[in-house]
Design goal:
Helix content is 65%, strand content 7%. The protein has 651 residues and is an alpha/beta fold. A seven-stranded mixed beta sheet has the order 1-4-5-3-2-6-7, with helices on both faces. The radius of gyration is 30 Å and the shape is elongated.
Length: 651
């Protein structure tokens, strides 16, 4: 029995961490988008558009109902404002994002390049918190709306009444199961889902417009009521601008559109550094999707507002969360309505799959590289389990209510769009493009206003976003602390002079002196050698090579180092290197020298003055501090065999 009990966890662990050893290879990407096609391959842009369209277009399942609840009779006017902001604001911003990050990194990567050190990392973690809000609420809200269409179907209403929470949980569990088994994004499936869903919506829109045209009193009743409630057109526009932030869900999908760029087929002359064909295809993708969605947003908002009684949009009403499905059943019969429900459920569920894929691409791209996630976070399946459990929690908190999740979803969407607008404004300013700088600055102001207004109106969105941010911050810093003594130098490269020094000293006992460069005059090196000889009782005939590490960005976690050799004052050999952490760089150099020479190197330190805890904090935050014991601890963690471990001497 013992072997069986031991082998089962081993098999489970191997299955959960499958593919982990392949993560982090040159050119590789974590998550289900690993190894994207080269620029000259891939899929035509219009097929890839359907991949992002399952997220973007699926919002038609609930957007008209949310617009009706937010704006009432003004829903079509407010939707026109939304379309103007989409075409004149979000679209130009993300066309520029596509130029600046053609490999699918998105606006977060653009802002990451603008900020360095810890402030850059903390800013990216904050954006990741809002991105997690966006993607996770996409999963939970889409599943909740899919379950709404299922429960409210006339054929199933009686059997599934009051089971929406359970059905939503089951849909999320099925989504997680698909990714645990191994999910490859099928663009063909996305094309079929989007084509059928848009075709069915076109039929519903056409029938709705026909009913409005043949029943002339519908338009006059609506316009009369609108004039009675709001007076003139200027008041209507003003109110529409005020309620616009509540309609921000209609802006979702642009981040996904940029994320799928690596799948867009480029041109023969494209290179990974300059994929002009891919960028052009992505711009066509974004523009076409925005135009299609704008037409549907205006038309669906118009027909649902005029043809559906206002009380049906309220909680408990038959059009709550499923306005277009209500019209499909009402005017085209339950058979067509059921087909529409099935199509809607399928695309909403697949929208959750697109969001899960986005999470699995986004989080492993940053957190492990920052040292702010466990090693297993590079593997897909453990992250799927984590995200699925969080989705369960969010669904339970919101009781699978579509309207209740709208605020959190809109907050995540608006923060990402605002950050993208700010990023392209800065990029345009750096490029000296004054007109674009002003234009993007105005767009940024609009989105920042919309974000702030949405937060004030629906603070639940920023609350859940703050929870995600706090969770990511706490877990990230805890992980960084737990991995503080991990060897995180990915490669060591010696220039010819450095290799010459190592070959020469390898013929004797390899002795390095860790030196903090100061004036670098002859007295500094002479006195240092004399002190090391006295403190460690080393004979005068023994030879030394100095090692000096300069800390660059201490917030970085993983990186390679290049070692340069130089002779100072015609007698002192010095190896210099740059790294985010002095102890890690020294440990990596010692292990590299051991492996290339098959000799055990020795390194000599001075004790650091000051409080040990304060010195550890200096190491944790700034890559320096109590160098000697930390170097020894990094070596101990990296090499468990004492006989093979480089020797550390401190005097």
């Amino acid at each position: 029995m013992a072997p069986t009990e031991q082998s089962a966890p081993s098999r489970l662990r191997a299955w959960m961490l499958e593919g982990l050893s392949d993560m982090g290879k040159a050119g590789g990407l974590p998550g289900p988008h690993a190894a994207p096609a080269p620029a000259h391959q891939g899929q035509p842009w219009y097929r890839v558009m359907c991949l992002t369209g399952v997220d973007y277009f699926s919002t038609l399942g609930y957007q008209p109902g949310i617009a009706a609840l937010a704006a009432g009779l003004l829903s079509p006017v407010a939707t026109v404002v939304l379309v103007i902001v989409t075409l004149a604001g979000a679209l130009p911003v993300y066309r520029r994002v596509a130029e600046e990050s053609p490999h699918g990194q998105g606006s977060i990567a653009m802002l990451e390049r603008l900020l360095t050190f810890w402030k850059g990392k903390l800013f990216v973690l904050t954006l990741l918190g809002f991105a997690a809000t966006d993607f996770l609420i996409t999963i939970t809200l889409s599943a909740a709306d899919a379950s709404t269409h299922l429960v409210e179907n006339p054929h199933l209403n009686e059997a599934l009444h009051d089971q929406q929470l359970l059905i939503t949980m089951v849909l999320i569990a099925l989504l997680g199961a698909v990714f645990l088994k191994g999910f490859l994004e099928a663009i063909g499936v996305a094309v079929a889902l989007v084509a059928s869903y848009l075709a069915l919506n076109a039929v519903v829109v056409a029938v709705g417009l026909w009913h409005i045209a043949t029943e002339g009193h519908v338009v006059t009743d609506w316009s009369h009521a609108l004039t009675t409630d709001h007076g003139n057109i200027f008041v209507m526009i003003g109110v529409a601008l005020i309620v616009f932030p509540k309609l921000a869900l209609g802006l979702s999908g642009f981040e996904t559109g940029v994320a799928v760029m690596p799948h867009v087929k480029g041109e023969l002359g494209d290179t990974e550094e300059h994929p002009k064909g891919r960028i052009l295809g992505a711009k066509k993708l974004l523009t076409t999707a925005a135009l299609i969605m704008s037409c549907f947003l205006i038309s669906t908002s118009f027909i649902t507002t005029l043809l559906i009684p206002a009380d049906e949009f309220e909680e408990g009403g038959q059009a709550n969360g499923r306005a277009l499905a209500y019209l499909a059943h009402e005017y085209l019969g339950n058979a067509f309505g059921t087909v529409y429900d099935v199509s809607t459920i399928a695309i909403l569920w697949f929208a959750g799959a697109s969001a899960m894929a986005g999470l699995l691409n986004l989080m492993p791209r940053y957190l492990p590289r920052y040292g702010m996630a466990p090693h297993w976070a590079r593997a897909v399946r453990p992250m799927v389990v984590v995200f699925t459990l969080v989705a369960f929690l969010v669904t339970w908190i919101f009781d699978a209510d579509v309207n209740a999740q709208g605020g959190a979803y809109a907050t995540g969407v608006l923060v990402l769009i605002s950050s993208a607008a700010i990023a392209v404004t800065i990029a345009a300013r750096k490029a000296g493009q004054r007109n674009w700088t002003v234009a993007f600055g105005v767009i940024s102001a609009v989105f920042v206003y919309t974000t702030v207004a949405n937060v004030i109106e629906r603070p639940d969105g920023v609350k859940i976003g703050a929870c995600f941010i706090a969770g990511i911050m706490i877990l990230s810093l805890a992980s960084r602390l737990a991995r503080a003594f991990e060897l995180r130098v990915t490669s060591v490269t010696l220039d010819p002079m450095a290799e010459r020094f190592v070959r020469d000293i390898a013929s004797r006992k390899i002795r390095f002196i860790a030196n903090e460069p100061d004036s670098r005059d002859i007295a500094e090196y002479r006195d240092k050698i004399e002190q090391i000889r006295q403190d460690n009782e080393v004979a005068g005939s023994e030879d030394f090579v100095f090692v000096e590490v300069t800390v660059t960005d201490p917030s970085e976690f993983e990186a390679g180092v290049t070692v340069h050799g130089e002779v100072l004052h015609n007698r002192y050999r010095v190896l210099t290197l740059e790294s985010s952490s002095i102890p890690n760089a020294l440990a990596a150099l010692l292990l590299h020298v051991r492996d290339t020479t098959d000799r055990i190197p020795h390194i000599y330190f001075e004790w650091t003055e000051g409080d040990p805890f304060a010195n550890f904090l200096r190491f944790f935050l700034f890559g320096q501090g109590e160098i000697a014991p930390v170097t020894r601890e990094v070596l101990r963690s990296a090499e468990p065999d004492v006989t093979r471990r480089p020797r550390v001497h401190t005097g």
